[in-house]
């Protein structure tokens, strides 16, 4: 264990290309001494390991398997000393000699620095961060000078304090471990090392905290360490994945690990081996809650999202940090969405008052390519868009967003500045613990059309200002069963008399501070809505101002079951008629239907039952609508997914059942238009 710990000690350089036999002597001496008078508290027993560093490259012979004299190292250290409450064998200093066990290695001659680690013993005479009240400490010593007897020594290190329960400046990290596979004891290997000094010895040398351990079932800990910033190495031995990241410990600190998350739940990491895999899961609807509003500072500084994805070449780290914060949003840990076990969230995203025509892409925050390079996670923006906006326009769209590092998503704004609002309406689990509901796609079916009023209301009538209408969505011979917990509906506002917004939420609960559609007078605007089924198997619809007709088409529902679980993905482009991707090059014509192969295309597996697509029309020559439906439907449904006018670029999220051959159909009603489709998830 000690050798593995030393292999990742910060400050020890990479293994040199040469070994200690090729490192020249500093001077001809017999021994090198590190002056230590003791450790505190004096009642602690334990051992001390010393790893020597040689020459100008800080070469560590005991951490290099190819070192000629590595056999003299004790479990990876050059030397190990013991101490007990009654005394120690290093009371007059720790001595590094030129020869050990009949082997002459001349390390005392070549020594320029040493790393000392102290492992206190807990109950049973062993190092055990789980049970003991005293933690481990480490320090770097150098500055060797000549002394009597042809020897060298460091300045006196003095007494070394150890982090201890209750001592000021000492903390402890604890947390849970979740996974969709069994979290057995020691499934994880964990090593902590403090960045910077947490205490000072009586000789003025900085002392750092450290810990090395495994998990115990669904729990993990650091043991007692000094408060501060730590680099932490976490290895999932079951899946052969390993990350390195940062944690901050300040007193009693909680950090939960999610072994299916990008950085195991940490906000920042680098993947050292393998990649944590987000698995498919069930759906959990929630009453809509606002997790972001840049206009008032909810979940974000009270400022618009600027151009770009947060990358910054500014030499000031504070400026770079502010740029990152401007483009990141945490979407877990509030409004019924837990902090762990979350594969994706469903967000109603609204862009408000953009300063320039632009498009926005929302994608999982990635790991860094290099941990200490704060710019190394940038430049990984998918070739996809979730919202297309023009200057001054307010545009909503439903987004299924895969969750990234730290429970966050990142926003890329192509041009200008814009305010953003995120309302969370549900989340998908990773299969860890209690699983959620599964999706069943249906051929789009009309539930409400206030222009004709076939069922609700009994006569044609638009929604008035401040009016709430309750719409039953389950039973009644429709496609949604009484067991459904949520429905996916395409809601369209048309013929509005003034600027307004429409809110959709579960019947029987207080209307949330959220909007699903924003529109101006005369505009026809659709948006996909996922909403929990409320009291009486119904949902509520509210119009804020003026009058507007409303059309509601159901495309699927969630209910308990065994199949129909979602796998989220970073957005991937499947169709672009401008370039010929996914089909013929050239715009859709007047009344034209095309088939799109989605099963087995891009990241979508051949067996997918339904897909979640962000569909965008651009460059239309006339006012029209686009309908997306299963390729094996008996007939094209009386429904539309996008409504647009000439010259407009409009996106909308579409959830559509896939035919047995893995295809969906797209139909354009009038004129000509280019169509783009980006897949963000699928159901299996």
Task: Please indicate the count of domains.
Answer: 5
Provide a count of the helices: 3
What is the beta-strand fraction? 35-45%
List how many beta strands DSSP finds: 47
Main pleated sheet:
11 strands, antiparallel
The rough form would be described as elongated
Q: Compute the gyration radius: what is it?
A: 31 Å
Helical/strand content category: mainly beta
* Mean pLDDT rating: 88
Question: What ranges have pLDDT less than 50 throughout 5 or more consecutive residues?
Answer: 1-16
Helix content: under 10%
Distance between the termini: 43 Å
How does this structure look, described?
By secondary structure, this protein is mainly beta. It folds into five domains: 2-161, no CATH class; 170-273, Immunoglobulins (Immunoglobulin-like, Sandwich); 283-429, Sandwich (Jelly Rolls); 438-559, Sandwich (Jelly Rolls), CATH 2.60.120.260; 566-683, Jelly Rolls, CATH 2.60.120. The chain is built from three helices and 47 strands. The strands form eleven sheets. Strands 3, 4, 5, 9, 10, 15, 16, 17, 19, 20 and 23 form an eleven-stranded antiparallel sheet that branches. A four-stranded mixed sheet has the order 6-1-12-11. A hairpin with a 5-residue loop joins β16 (199-200) and β17. The longest helix is centred in the middle third of the chain and has 10 residues, at 317-326. Residues 1-16 have low confidence and may be disordered.
């Amino acid at each position: 264990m000690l050798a593995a710990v030393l292999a990742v000690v910060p400050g020890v350089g990479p293994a040199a290309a040469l070994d200690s036999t090729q490192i020249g002597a500093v001077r001809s001496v017999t021994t090198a001494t590190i002056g230590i008078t003791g450790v505190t508290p004096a009642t602690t027993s334990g051992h001390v390991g010393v790893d020597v560093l040689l020459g100008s490259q800080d070469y560590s012979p005991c951490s290099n398997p190819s070192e000629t004299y590595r056999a003299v190292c004790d479990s990876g250290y050059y030397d190990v000393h013991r101490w007990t409450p009654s005394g120690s064998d290093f009371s007059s200093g720790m001595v590094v000699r030129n020869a050990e066990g009949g082997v002459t290695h001349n390390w005392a001659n070549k020594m320029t620095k040493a790393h000392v680690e102290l492992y206190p013993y807990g109950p049973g005479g062993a190092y055990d961060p789980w049970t003991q009240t005293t933690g481990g400490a480490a320090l770097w010593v150098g500055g060797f000078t000549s002394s009597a007897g042809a020897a060298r020594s460091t300045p006196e290190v003095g007494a070394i304090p150890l982090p201890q329960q209750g001592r000021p400046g000492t903390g402890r990290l604890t947390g849970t471990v979740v996974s969709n596979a069994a979290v057995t004891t020691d499934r994880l290997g964990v090593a902590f090392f403090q960045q910077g000094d947490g205490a000072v010895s009586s000789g003025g040398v900085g002392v750092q905290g450290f810990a090395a351990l495994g998990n115990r079932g669904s729990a993990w800990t650091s043991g007692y360490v000094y408060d501060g910033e730590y680099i932490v190495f976490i290895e999932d031995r079951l899946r052969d994945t390993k990350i390195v990241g940062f944690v901050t410990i300040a007193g009693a600190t909680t950090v939960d690990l999610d072994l299916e998350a990008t950085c195991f739940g940490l906000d920042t990491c680098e993947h050292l081996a393998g990649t944590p895999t987000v698995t498919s899961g069930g759906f959990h609807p929630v009453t809509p809650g606002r997790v972001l509003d840049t206009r008032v500072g909810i979940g974000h500084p009270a400022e618009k999202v600027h151009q770009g994805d947060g990358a910054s070449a500014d030499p000031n780290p504070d400026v770079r940090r502010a740029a990152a914060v401007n483009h990141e949003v945490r979407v877990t840990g509030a409004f019924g969405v837990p902090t762990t076990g979350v594969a994706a969230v469903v967000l109603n995203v609204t862009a408000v008052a953009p300063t320039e025509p632009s498009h926005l892409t929302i994608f999982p925050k990635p790991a860094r390519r290099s941990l200490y390079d704060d710019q190394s996670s940038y430049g990984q923006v998918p070739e996809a868009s979730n919202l297309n906006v023009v200057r001054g326009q307010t545009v909503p769209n439903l987004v299924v967003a895969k969750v990234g590092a730290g429970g966050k998503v990142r926003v890329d704004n192509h041009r200008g500045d814009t305010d953003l609002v995120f309302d969370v309406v549900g989340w998908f689990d990773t299969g860890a613990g209690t699983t959620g509901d599964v999706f069943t796609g249906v051929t789009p079916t009309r539930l409400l059309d206030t222009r004709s009023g076939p069922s609700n209301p009994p006569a044609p009538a638009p929604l008035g200002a401040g009016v709430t209408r309750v719409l039953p969505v389950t039973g009644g011979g429709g496609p949604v069963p009484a067991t459904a917990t949520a429905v996916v509906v395409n809601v369209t506002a048309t013929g509005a008399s003034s600027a307004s917004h429409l809110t959709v939420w579960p019947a029987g609960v207080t209307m949330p501070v959220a909007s699903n559609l924003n529109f101006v007078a005369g505009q026809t605007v659709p948006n996909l809505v996922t909403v929990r089924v409320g009291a009486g198997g119904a949902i509520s619809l509210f119009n804020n101002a003026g009058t507007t007709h409303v059309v509601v088409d159901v495309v699927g529902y969630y209910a308990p079951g065994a199949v129909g679980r979602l796998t989220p993905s970073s957005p991937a482009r499947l169709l672009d008629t401008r370039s010929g991707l996914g089909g013929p090059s050239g715009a859709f014509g007047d009344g034209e239907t095309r088939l799109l192969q989605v099963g087995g295309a891009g990241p979508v597996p051949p067996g997918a039952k339904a897909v979640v697509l962000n569909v965008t029309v651009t460059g239309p020559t006339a006012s029209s609508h686009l309908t997306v439906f299963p390729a094996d439907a008996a007939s094209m449904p009386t429904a539309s997914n996008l409504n647009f006018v000439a010259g407009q670029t409009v996106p909308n999220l579409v959830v559509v059942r896939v035919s047995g051959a893995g295809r969906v159909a797209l139909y354009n009603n009038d004129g000509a238009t280019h169509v783009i489709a980006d897949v963000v998830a699928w159901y299996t």
